[in-house]
């Protein structure tokens, strides 16, 4: 064999060993009840996924709403390296809408699907086997008019008759599908069953060796990751997953768990992904923040306790040799070695170094602003943890361009009501102060904001959680407002819960003001 042919063989082998990561956080993840993201939040998540090395981003379901269409289209414009995918049911309107949404992408994909199991055919679709078969051919053929990258999914494949599944998979391949997805839609399969299904399809369906086989496993029995890895062992080379395992019902296979399982157990899973694993922790925190879904403390890879050791036996072992109880390094997933390293005596150089360690790269002005707020926080708190710094920086970036800012807040509260809030806001450069009462200190604060910024927005969500432990922990507050179909979210963190609440509410209103102005400009243009 010549050197040239050896190089080509190695490249082919490398491609065969590559596992394509298909992230559906913005589509399937957002379908999780209560996890809806705003337009701006979707763009923020998509940008991070793109930077992290995700191969394919399923950006949404374009036919679902005008907002979904616009976010998919905008993500398609902004993506640098990821393939941008739009989901479509097996009907012309869905496919045409998805095709239009992904048109600006450097590389676009249409993902079309239809239920194939007896339960889905009979009870959801009311279609015969032949009718579903015809829909498969029509939908894939139509999708090929928009892109040569078409994925087809047999929804509820694991409960579909095997012979019929072979028939519709073959029809999709013959019609031009380049990726065939075999979903465990309801999380019903066991790993050995899923392995056998993929293996049998590979040997039973003509042309299966010419397409990429994909998995899409749900976690109803807690087996989504195990089934996905079984699919890889059987020959699947694309894994559909979400950050934090977010998704309908019990969720999807977790991206971070799939990627780190492949990296950590390379002896049994001799494959690789293109994911920059040091960004996994940041991705987890971002998705948790924008969806207001907290990550459980003992969550694998990205949970707060994933690299924590409290047991004396464990502590002793880790101090002697870290690998006694850790199978991967915290740094490999973007978690710092230590939680307590910064304080009020730390200088700019140390702060900048810590930010770099946490994965942040700030410009001079943003760095100076973050450092000043860090010093103010260090004066208030006895211990400053990595999580405190991350919350502080994320808040600063989020509010950098806000038109409304909290200048001062004084609240009088206690058992003898009503409670009183005195609030000063900077409203586009002008300082205004008002005093208001309410049923509790938060209500009084929000009433004061409403006096200064009159609005009819409804408070859809008010959520508070502590960033770290202790009575001096920063409170991280999330606020979601809705007005005339416009939904905005604001977040803030501060050791004072009321200050954080006011800033989060004002941040949301600041976004609402921008949305109002855009709507007014659009109406004037018409």
Task: Give descriptors for this structure.
three-stranded antiparallel beta sheet, disordered N terminus, eight-stranded parallel beta barrel, TIM Barrel, Double Stranded RNA Binding Domain, 3 domains, 526 residues, 17 helices, alpha/beta, 16 strands, 43% helix
Protein model, in words:
The strands form four sheets. This protein has an eight-stranded parallel barrel with strand order 1-2-3-4-5-6-7-8, surrounded by seven helices. Strands 11-12-13 form a three-stranded antiparallel beta sheet. β14 and β15 form a beta hairpin. The N and C termini lie far apart (about 70 Å). The chain has helices at about 5-15, 40-50, 65-80, 90-100, 120-125, 130-145, 160-175, 190-205, 225-235, 255-265, 280-290, 310-320, 350-355, 365-380, 385-400, 440-450, 495-525, and strands at about 20-25, 55-60, 85-90, 110-115, 150-155, 180-185, 210-215, 240, 340, 385, 405-410, 420-425, 430-440, 460-465, 475-485, 485-495. It contains 17 helices and 16 strands. It has three domains: about 20-290, Aldolase class I (TIM Barrel, Alpha-Beta Barrel), CATH 3.20.20; about 340-400; about 405-525, Double Stranded RNA Binding Domain, CATH 3.30.160. About 45% of the residues lie in helices and about 20% in strands. The chain is globular, with a radius of gyration of 25 Å. The longest helix has 29 residues, at about 495-525. By secondary structure, it is α/β, with parallel strands linked by helices. Mean pLDDT is about 85; it is low at about 1-15.
């Amino acid at each position: 064999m010549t050197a040239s042919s050896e190089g080509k063989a190695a490249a082919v082998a490398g491609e065969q060993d590559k596992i394509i990561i298909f992230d559906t956080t913005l589509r399937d993840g957002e379908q999780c009840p209560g996890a809806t993201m705003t337009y701006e939040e979707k763009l923020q998540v998509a940008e991070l996924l793109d930077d992290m090395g995700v191969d394919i981003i399923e950006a949404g379901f374009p036919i679902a709403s005008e907002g979904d269409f616009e976010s998919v289209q905008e993500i398609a414009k902004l993506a640098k390296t990821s393939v941008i995918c739009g989901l479509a049911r097996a009907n012309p309107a869905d496919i045409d809408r998805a095709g239009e949404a992904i048109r600006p992408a450097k590389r676009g994909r249409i993902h079309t699907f239809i239920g194939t199991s007896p339960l889905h055919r009979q009870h959801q679709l009311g279609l015969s086997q032949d009718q579903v078969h015809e829909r498969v051919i029509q939908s894939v053929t139509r999708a090929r008019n928009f892109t040569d990258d078409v994925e087809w999914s047999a929804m509820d494949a694991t409960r579909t008759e095997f012979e019929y599944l072979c028939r519709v998979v073959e029809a999709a391949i013959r019609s031009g599908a380049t990726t065939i997805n075999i979903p465990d839609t309801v999380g019903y399969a066991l790993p050995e069953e899923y392995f056998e299904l993929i293996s049998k399809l590979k040997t039973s369906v003509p042309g299966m060796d010419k397409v990429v086989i994909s998995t899409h496993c749900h976690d109803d029995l807690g087996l989504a990751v195990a089934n996905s890895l079984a699919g890889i062992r059987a020959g699947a080379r694309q894994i559909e997953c979400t950050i934090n395992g977010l998704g309908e019902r019990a969720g999807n296979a977790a991206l971070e768990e799939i990627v780190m399982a492949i990296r950590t157990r390379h002896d049994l899973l001799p494959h690789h992904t293109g994911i920059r694993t040091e960004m996994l922790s940041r991705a987890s925190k971002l998705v948790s923040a924008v969806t207001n879904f907290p990550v459980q403390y003992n969550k694998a890879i990205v949970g707060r306790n994933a690299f924590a050791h409290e047991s004396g036996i464990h502590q002793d072992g880790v101090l002697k040799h870290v690998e006694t109880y850790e199978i991967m390094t915290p740094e490999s997933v973007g978690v710092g070695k230590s939680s307590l390293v910064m304080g009020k005596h730390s200088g700019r150089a140390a702060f900048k170094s810590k930010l770099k360690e946490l994965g942040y790269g700030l410009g001079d002005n943003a760095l100076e602003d973050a450092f000043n707020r860090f010093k103010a926080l260090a004066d208030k708190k006895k211990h400053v943890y990595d999580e405190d710094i991350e919350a502080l920086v994320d808040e600063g970036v989020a509010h950098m361009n806000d038109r409304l800012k909290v200048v001062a807040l004084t609240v009088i509260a206690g058992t003898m009501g009503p409670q009183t809030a005195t609030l000063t806001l900077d409203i586009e450069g002008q300082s205004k102060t008002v005093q208001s009462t309410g049923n509790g200190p938060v209500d009084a604060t929000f009433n004061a904001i409403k006096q200064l910024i009159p609005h009819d927005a409804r408070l859809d969500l008010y959520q508070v959680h502590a960033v770290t432990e202790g009575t001096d922990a920063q409170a991280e507050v999330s606020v979601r407002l809705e007005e005339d179909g416009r939904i905005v979210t604001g977040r803030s963190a501060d050791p004072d819960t009321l200050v954080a609440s006011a800033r989060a509410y004002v941040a949301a209103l600041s976004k609402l003001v921008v949305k109002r102005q855009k709507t007014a400009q659009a109406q004037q243009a018409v």
